Structure formats: C-alpha cells, structure tokens
Amino acid sequence: MSERANTTFQTTGSGWLLPVSEYLEFPLDQVNFLACQLFALAAAFWFRLYLSPGHANPLVRHAVATLLGVAFLIFCFGWYSAHILVMVIATYLIIIKADINNVHRYSMVTAMGYLTLCQASRAFIFSYGILSTDFSGPLMIVTQKITTLAFQLHDGMCKKSEQLTSEQRLMAVKARPSLIEYLSYNLNFLSVLVGPCSNYKDYTDFIEGRHISRRLRQHTGTCNGQNGYDKTPDVSPLNAVCRKLLVCCGCMLFFLTVTRSLPIKANVEPDFVSHTPFLTRLTYAFFSIQAARPKFYFAWTLADAVNNAAGYGFLGMDESGKPSWDLISNLNIIRIETATSFKTFIDNWNIQTGIWLKIVCYDRAPKHRLAMTFILSALWHGVYPGYYFTFLTAIPITMAARAIRKSVRHYFLGSRVMKLGYDILTWAATQLAICYTVMPFLLLSVDKTVVYYRSMYFHVHIISILAAIALSGKHKPREPSATTKSFPPVSSSSVPASCPAKRQPFHSNKVD
User: Fold this and answer.
1) pLDDT average, residue stretch 214-234
2) Which residues are catalytic?
3) More exposed terminus of the chain, fewer Cβ within 10 Å: N or C?
4) Burial of 392 per CB tally in 10 Å (0-12, 13-18, 19+)
5) Over the stretch 40-84, which tens digit does the pLDDT of each residue have?
6) Residue 483: is its pLDDT beyond 60?
7) Does pLDDT of 326 surpass 50?
C-alpha cells in the first residue's frame, strides 16, 4: 500500500478526502473526481426541481451552473484549473473582438495550440503523467466546446442559409454570446469534468426552458394530435437516470473485481512475452482490453446521468412512445460489445467526439477529409506516441474492412445460417482488431508499443495491408443502405412509426 499511498500526494487538488483515498487504496485525484460527480448528480436534481426555468431566470441558472463548475475544477485540480479558466477567457476575447469572418480559425488555433502545449508539458515534464494530476480531460472537453461554438457562430453570422447543410443551419448561432452564457456553456458543472460536449443552442435551450418543449412539438405539431399524444407525456428523466446509474454500478463492480486483475502492462512484461505461447498472449490481450472498457463506460454513463438528472439530454419520444434521454450520450455499450465491423465500433464509442470532429473538420475540409480528421483527432487526444500508433494502425484496418465487406459480405446473405456465421466471424475479427489497434493507446510509449506489436508479429498490419491490396477494386458496386439514419447510433427514432414525417436533422457520428 505504500507505493499507492505515495501517489496520492501527487495531486494538486484538495486533500480533504485523503483518508478515504488511503482507505480505499485509490489515487486521491480519482477519489476527488468521483466525489465531485456524485455531488454533481445531487446538485443536478436540485437544479431541475428548485432552480427550474419556472423558478429562476436564465441569468441565475447560468451563474449557478458556472460557479459550481469552477468549484469542481478547483477542488479536483487546484492551481492547474487556471489553465482551463485562462483558455476560456482568452477565447471569449477572440469571440467578441476578432473579425467574425476568422473567429473560427483563431479559436481553433488558440484552443488546440494551448491544449497541445499543456499535454506536451504533462507528457514530457511529468514523465507520461503517471503520478501527476490529469487536468487534460476537462481541457479537452473545453476545447471541443470552444471550437464547436466558434464554427457555429461563423455559420450563423457569415454564411447564407443556402451555403449551409441542414445540420449546420439547425445549429447556427446568430449572435455572439454574453460572457455569462459563454462561461456557463464551457464551465457548467454538468459537463466540466468529463463532458460530453454538446451544441450551444441545445444548451441555451435547456437553460432557458425550451429544451423539452421544442422536441415535443416535433411530434404533436407534425401529426396534429393524431399520434396518441393528446396530452403532454411525462418526460421525467428519473427512469433514464436510474437505468444509467445501474449501468454505472455494474461497471464499477466489474472494475473492482475483473479489471484490476487484468492489467494492461502485463502484455509487455519481458517474462510474459518471452515464455508465453502466442495464442495465450493473444487471448490475454483480448480480455485485458475488454476489461479496460468499463472504466470508460462508468465515467461517460455517469456524466450522461448527471446531465439527465438536471433535465438536459432529452432527445424525443421513441417508437414505443417513451421518452428518450440519449441526445448527448457518449456511447452505446450494447452496440460496442456486439459490433461486427470496425466502423460500427467507432460510431458507438465516444460519440460526441465523433460528432465534434464531423462539425469542425470532416464537413469543412476542402480535400483529404478523412486524413485531416484522423490528424485532428490524434492532436486532440495528446502527444503520446501510442495515440499516433493507434490512429496510423486504424487506417489500413479501415481500408481492409471496407474492401472485405464489399467483396465478401453479399455471398453470406442468402440464408439465415450463413448470415449468422458471417456475423460471428466478423464480430470476433472486429474485437481482435480493436484490441490490436487500441493497445498502444493505453501503453502510450514507443518502446512498449514496439514490444507489443513484435510479440504479435505485426499480424494485423500484414493481414490488413494484403487484404486491402488484394481486394482493391474487386467488389460489387455498393448498394444504398436500408438502415441510413438521421440520428446518432445511440438514439432511437424520435418519431413514432405512425408519424413518419419530419425528423429533426442531427449530427451523426459518421466520418466514413
């Protein structure tokens, strides 16, 4: 316990919970984070019930959300929180002072540049950040929000309606935000620690009390009261919050019992690599990566529950007429664990980041859109070499997956048994490819990544490159998909089957 106890003193945040940290044998910064998120959950219920738009004006709601968010930052990160506050203030000056035609460029360069400098200092000065407070997470979320708003402000004030896509028109911002609105959007306690990023107009609708009513009107207004919603349905988030908290409990239990017994670093330990058969190493890598996911599931699902508890995140009514609270959900666990393609996995993992990349890069890049999106994603994640190994490895795997799907899949659609066999095979291949691809993301350093890939004989690299070359141009023309969606993968249709017209356009996490 002595080694773990020593690590607790490396945090710059509050030391009030140090006895709890030592008792649980958890790093103090993680204990502080969990305490803030649990407090945020309680505060979110209070915010919805006692500080609702009917009881408080938007200025009060903005101010309270901001003050709580800043308090959480100071509690968790101490003086490191100044980095986040400085970047928000600096980019607000850009928003109000810079030429509106270039505000998106200045905001992107400033936010991404400052984020990169902070991540570089943490990586190289603090020895890969293992024993130092990780303030980069909130800084990454704030970077997403700053750039999202800057691009949407440029759309609303500089471009004509016909120059925008339907999604861009929907989220375009027509006026510069006030200081309190800008601070609240970037630093509100609901998302300041772990996100997710959301659109500025959705957030201001929530603060001003239009968030739910606007989405309900999409149903009652479209079908003129003939779709079974003669009365305003109950849209309390309580059921959604309880369901997501149960998922969090399951993920925490899994982490405590399984994840900690399958450490990622064991994949590159010299004895393990030298004396363990290849299939055993492959099996351990697969299960250790699977076991590493629940900590992300826990953090993102808890953040989603906090937003829902405050009344934010209402998407609409699903096909069964029940409220859906998945507007800003960051993942779909079932689709991740059952993914039968590399793209399906990516589309359901860190969804809001995928949407952000689409908003600020993929939809706007004049050429080489996929490459530029990969580069921006890598820069946003940080400067650790392992991140770049992951993104570079993903390129040939993505190309091979496309080629194989287009060349082979149609042969297995003739019978249900063959289709089931194909799905099982592609599920196993996808999960193994994900394991192989994301391992450097967790190992971080060059030497450990090279050790791992050598122990795997670079087999996924070799197979992917050969498959992409061999099957290039040898596939049937792609048929239009029958499952094209207007919503992100985590959501159900917000329009009942009896009311087919008018779905609200929404950014989808698709950059393929």
Assistant:
1) 55
2) 350, 381
3) N
4) middle
5) 999 999 999 999 998 999 999 999 999 999 999 999 998 889 999
6) no
7) yes
The two tokens of residue 155 are 């759309």
Tokens representing residue 450 in the block:
């090279």
Which pLDDT value is given to residue 206? 96
User: What ranges in 18-78 are assigned the alpha helix state H?
Assistant: 18-24, 28-50, 58-77
**Residue 94: is its pLDDT beyond 70?**
yes
Question: What is residue 105's predicted lDDT score, i.e. its pLDDT?
Answer: 95
pLDDT tens digits along 376-412:
998 999 888 888 899 888 888 888 888 888 888 888 8
User: How far apart, in whole angstroms, are the C-alpha atoms of residue 288 and residue 370?
Assistant: 30
Nearest to 237 by CA among 45, 58, 51: 45
Q: Specify the pLDDT at position 215.
A: 84
**Stated pTM of the model:** 0.86
Read off the pLDDT of each residue in 476-495 and give the average, rounded to a whole number: 39
- The pair of structure tokens assigned to 66 is 């901001």
Report yes or no: 187 and 88 within 8 Å, Cβ to Cβ: yes
Residue whose tokens read 């219920």:
45
**Beta-bridge partners for 324:** 316
Residues 6+ apart with CB under 8 A from 12: 77, 78, 79, 80, 133
Q: How many residues does the chain have?
A: 512
**What is the H or E stretch that residue 175 is in?**
none
First to last CA, the chain: 47
pLDDT of residue 489: 37
130: Cβ–Cβ under 8 A, 6 or more apart, which residues?
none
- The dihedral built from the CA positions of residue 317, 318, 321 and 322, taken in this order, carries a sign that is negative
Q: To the nearest 5 percent, what fractions of the chain are helix, strand and coil?
A: 70, 0, 30
324-344 burial: b if 16+ Cβ within 10 Å, else e? bbbbbbbbbbebbeebbbbbb
Query: Taking a C-beta distance cutoff of 8 angstroms, is the pair 203, 181 a contact?
Result: no
Nearest-5° angle of CA 235, CA 236, CA 241? Answer: 125
CA-closest candidate to residue 157, choices 142, 172, 137: 172
DSSP-assigned states of every residue in 176-198: PPPHHHHHHHHH-TTTTTT----
- DSSP letter at 476? P
Angle formed by the axes of helices 416-443 and 459-470, nearest 10°? 130
Residues 493/487, Cβ–Cβ less than 8 Å: yes
Question: Do 61 and 52 contact (CB within 8 A), yes or no?
Answer: no
Q: Indicate the helix (H) or strand (E) that contains 153.
A: helix 136-158
Peptide bond before 196: cis, by omega within 30 degrees of 0? yes
For residues 341 and 426, the answer to whether their CB atoms sit within 8 Å is: yes
